[in-house]
Amino acid sequence: MSLQRALILMLLLFFIFISEMKESTAFPWGCSNYSGVCRPICLPAELTFGPFGCDKGFVCCVSHIL
Predict the structure, then answer these.
(1) Residues 6+ positions from 47 with CB-CB distance below 8 Å
(2) pLDDT: is 59 or 28 the higher one?
(3) What is the gyration radius of the CA atoms in the chain, in angstroms?
(4) SS (H, E, C) the chain
(5) ∠ at Cα 65 (64, 66), nearest 5°?
(6) 31: how many CB neighbours lie within 10 A of its CB?
(7) What's the confidence (pLDDT) of residue 18?
(8) Where is the signal peptide (predicted)?
(9) How many CA atoms lie within 13 A of 50 on its CB side?
(10) 61 neighbors 38 (Cβ within 8 angstroms)
């Protein structure tokens, strides 16, 4: 019985590790890497870079690209 519990615990930890790994590889960079600002809507003079590193409902707005 304790062997089954240990195997289930190891399997659960493995799945948690895999899910964390997928989340970190999805967006390895953030809005701050482009000197951007997270806003609901970008200003007319800014470029929209998508939701990289921003909360839900916000997009990364960049004023210039170097």
Answers:
(1) 61, 62, 63, 65
(2) 59
(3) 19
(4) CHHHHHHHHHHHHHHHHHHHHHHHHHCCCCHHHHCCEEECCCCCCCEECCCCCCCCCCEEEECCCC
(5) 120
(6) 22
(7) 65
(8) 1-26
(9) 4
(10) yes
